[in-house]
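REVIEWER CHECKLIST
Item 1: Sequence provided? yes
Item 2: Single chain? yes
Item 3: Sequence as submitted:
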Amino acid sequence: MEVVGTGLRSLTLVRHGESVVNAAPYTGSDEFITGISDSEVPLTERGVAQAVAAGPRLAGFEPDFDLVLCSPYLRTRETARLALSAVAAPPPRYDERLRDRETGILFGLTTFGIERRLPEEHRQLQRVGRFYHRPAGGESWPDVALRLRAVLRELHGHVLIFAHDITIVLTRYIFGELDIADLQAQTGAEVGNASITRWERDNSEMLSILYNDTSHLS
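Item 4: Structure as written out by the authors:
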């Protein structure tokens, strides 16, 4: 089965700008954020500026993107709206398969909070590793990869996607650039806010052109 549609010419992925969760200070407490759902986490002022800065950079890649897809979460919708003001592209289509990983009962908890409040979940995470762990009410990384594979097989032309760090990392995994050991070894988000990652087709292969590029934010 094809990893991506045979008509895909290029794929450009943008991580959302800095969100209030990304900017939340670590205080040593159980929680890093309360009173908000993951889908409604907004951008910070810095995240807004990052999204605006990404627009002209994206415009330099394609004279006219054929398709724009976006996670339905607020932080990605805001990033797309701001960046696309500088890009020749159709309006974004929101696709729930591009949403961030659902962490279930772990959402909002720090590592210390998980260990203290949910010791069995913490033990299970230690046993199976972060790639395969599926928290109660949430998803494992393979769960996210399955829905992402379905999206990739449908793509054609020059495609622009606004999504999350896990989307970008798992696309690299699906394309064979990373293996499970690489993913298990990650200790945090290695993909920068408002960074750009891009592949272009060369005959039958999608070749990596940029990964986690933030030069437009300098």
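Item 5: Key structural point noted by reviewer: The mean pLDDT is 92.
Item 6: Recommendation: ____
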